[in-house]
Design goal:
Elements: H1 3-25, H2 29-50, H3 57-63, H4 68-87, H5 91-94, H6 96-112, H7 124-138, H8 148-163, H9 168-183, H10 185-218, H11 222-225, H12 235-238, H13 244-268
Helix pairs in contact: 1-2, 1-13, 2-10, 2-13, 4-6, 7-10, 7-13, 8-9, 10-13
Length: about 270
Amino acid sequence: MNKDYIQTWIDLAIEDLEVSKILFENEKFSNSFYHFQQASEKGLKAYAFMIKTYTSEKDANNTGHFTLKVFIDSVNERQKEIAFLKDYEFEKLIGTENLDDYSNNLESGLNSLPKRKEIYEYSNEILEEILNIIKELSEFNFEFPSDFKKHLIEKMDLFFNLVYKSNPEKVEEARKDFKDFIKDENQLNDLIESTKQHFINTMTEHFHVLILYYSNLISHNHNNLARYPEIDFNPLNYYKSDRPIIRKLPKYIEYLKNTLYQLKKWNDQIS
């Protein structure tokens, strides 16, 4: 999918968010929340196109407003990857407990998601907890352990042992090259810096994906609820300033704004 098409999704999301902020400042809360939901949805769909989870307009159309499907599909793919790692005994490298915890957390998260037509009313405590999680992650600072070289050698030895039976000759050649490599302190330092930057970039991406996840989670299925009246429901009376999600909305708007502009930067880097 070409970058101009993706940029259109991002630009529309940014515009929706700007409208949401203006409406909030003018106490038009139901429409403010509606445009926040629209910005969340379009931002996530833009990201899905960027990472090729979506490859055609049909993919976005099939998801409709149920954008949590993107995360459900992602969890199912991660579970397949975990099964693959276990099949080839890579849990020895990563740690069986780590893999099992990751898998269980994914499953727990999946089970807690609202269904397609469910609408959750999140309490002030839950909304504040989410904001605290986001704040803590935004302040995350990564440093390599002082004995990184030792850990690297141990993990690489374990890796070579795991794949040895697949091609002993190639593995022994790679083992020798690795031992020669780590003798050169300059090369090792370059590797450490490169690995550290890669990790920081990965954490940055995960942070912004988390913003997209929470933004879509808290606004799930409010696209119609915030927009249209029903016989026994008036959105103007429902989305009032004392409702927890409305009180917290400015903070969520600000986080989503930063994420949408990060998407814009990433899209600009696509060749």
